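tmp note - TonB-dependent receptor
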Amino acid sequence: MNSYKPSKLALSTLNCAVLAALFGWSVNTAAAEADIQEQEIEEVVAVGQRLKGSAGAVLQERQNQAFVADIMGADQISRTGDGDAASALRRVTGLTLVDGKFIYVRGLGERYSSTQLNSMYVPSPDPTRSVVPLDLFPSEIIESLSVQKSFSPDMPAHFGGGNVNIRTKSIPSDFLFKVQVGSSYNTSNSDSGYFYEGGDDDWMGRDDGTRALSNVFTTALTSDAGLEGNINSTLEERKNLIQSLDWNVGISKEDVDPAMSFSVAVGDRLESEIGTFGVLAAVSYDNEWEVVQEQSGSSLGSLGCENKCFAQYYDGTSTEQNVRWSGTLNLGYEFNSNHRFELTNIALHDMSDRVRNRNYYDANETEEGVTELRRVDISYEEREMFSSQLKGTHNFPELNNLFFDWYGGLSRANRNAPGGLDVVFQQNYNDGVFESEQLQDVAATNITREYQVLHDDVETFGWNMGLPFYGDGYELELKIGGDFSEKKRDASNVKFGITHRGISDEFTFGNNISDIFADANTSNDAFYTSATGSGIFDDGTTDGDKYSAAHKLDAYYFMADYFFENTWRITGGVRWEDFKQVSIGYQAHSNLFENTLEEIQDVVINEDTFFPSLAVTYIMDEEMQFRLNVSETTIRPDLRDVSTSFFVDPLTEFLVRGSPSLQSSELTNVDFRFEWYMPTGNNLSVALFYKDIENPIEMVELAGVGGASPQLLTANAQSGKLSGIEVDFLTDFGFINKDWSSAFLSGNVTLSDSSVNLGINDSDNVDSLFETQLKEALEADTVSNIVTNNKRRLVGHSEWVANLQMGYDSDDGFHSTSVIYNVFGPRIIVPGTRGNEDAEEKSFHSLDLVYSYFPNFNSKVNFKVKNILGQEKQIEQEGLTLWGQETGTEFSLSYSYEF
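out:
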């Protein structure tokens, strides 16, 4: 898509208003500057409050922000016992967590939020999502989490629900040594899980090469003859290929070990004649297992039932091991209080190894009591991110307190998913009595093997410069800056099958894939139905499964922050961004482009746009203030969103593809918030928000073919709206009795509504953008009968979200406890088609208990009970379970020592 946009500066009323206001301030400032008089220092009264550590600091930071933001500090994260950034952020007002990794801000999907690490861009190791999976960031490295919900010119214009900035711990003010060990047990693990051999380094979260595709196989895939070879290929050559694969993947039932974790942090600060040096190093490790009962369905219709049912349905056990480790090394240098440098190095690694053994019902193939099916699949993936960030802060008192900040960063994200396996077994019965089990006896059935690799590299740098002015009754800060980033991605997916029809019938019997493909069998000529082994392979890799993509962003901004009589604060500015993006698919198993150069040029995104923002704060007194923010932003397609190749959604397991003509969404954002900060730390805020979205990026379901997994298309709807109210509060119970001031209640509630108009209207004889994209995907002449609801709520939007926390801190400081509750309203996961209702994820009620005991000043014992209610997670469609998972209650205990 070639979507160059001319400057909107002259066309936007908001832009004009912002520039006019800023120009006026500058003139008034210049006139008043001559009258600057020496200011008397006002008396400062310190008032104690119940908030301790970072909790009080982040509350003060939120109060001093020019734009609407919510901030969670390390002490608050520790109190709730959340282990990573994703889990912690679901406690923030208006935020919900999807798939344990992705944050929905104010009901907008994860593509409508952006993630930064220490205010810098970072890549994502997840090919199915446009943002970084936040479960990658362990809580041990986090100093605070900032969620800015209104756009400011010094942040990325790719902004919808909000911007999440993960701020890691910096060098300590004194010597630090902290060690923590812990273990946990989940009640769902009382059932035995399913395991396979794996590699020797699995405990480290790394494959030792056992699962990797062999050289002989990669050579065959890239040869002119292809995987099946040519007419001269011999049986020995095909035997060699089969035996080069790892077949030691037969599953067995075993008990599950308890989870274990540890972390160590050490740091210090050294004063010298040439300045101050500091260092902080930390490592953490976590290894846990989870056994859950899982159900899922696909191909909703009437096949095999009178009303509506799923043509395919799964019910069985999922066993998953997760290994996470992280390492940080921060180095700091302060020449003096005005000049500081800091180097931050972060390594994050996450391994997930899942085995599922499920009964499989297929309306076309299952005959209960005669022929029943069982499906076994294994998925293994490693996700990792490495980031090095260097930044400097410089203040120049001799130049009227001019300040200059700069930063630069290199980040790399990788995803390696080798050796994916999917196999269907057929269980044979005679008069209802089990006789035997074999590979499914259907000609078109395969044993699927899959190997995926993704590499993302991001280079980013930028600078900010500001100059303050002080006058009689006013303060003004003018600020300019630039942000620049380049992102490159290379990804590939190799998928092939071992056909059941290529194996002689007598060798297909057995219930373990390791036994069927034992060396004694695969080396036997009789194992193959063909004398040359021909037809044993089915190459499932398609054009576009390998692709390269890149984007480049150059941005500059100007903003001003104006205080008047300590009563009014007016902050605003304009950001200009030049954005370019391209995604290029390759032909299967080659380095040749899938499309012509002309076709590639047609889908290049090239945008050059201004984004204005204006914030007005009225400070009633030291405790109360009102904020109003207005801005214009954008949401751009991700690298995969413009590709026609499919990937598998990890939650629903639906196939997802993009639209080459996908366009950016344009948003108008309005926020109004009242804030009340009381001296004791108690606080209350009430916010109203509204968003108008042009061309929102949505999902629509396409019909599956021949019982295959349904397909989802990423496409542009015509328009969307979102509005709501947020209430956030914290209070102790001292108003009842002063002895009750050690107990407190905090929480937040969000009520909102959304609507999206897809733009389907056959009567006007003019195709909307959505209709065009849907017709191209379906190769159809009409789409009016495809989508059930032309108007509905936004995908992923919950109409209500609530968080509550009841806490108590003993007067002697030895005990601390909290009960934490979180719930969200139902949200659409898959929009309905052909008259079927939308598939909705049902409300999930989460109740946790955290207790901390401090035996002395250095030690801490932490006990947590997570998911006390043990509610099942469910996605329903037409009253049927599209996806469901039982969840257990987790008990964890940890001990930490710090000196």
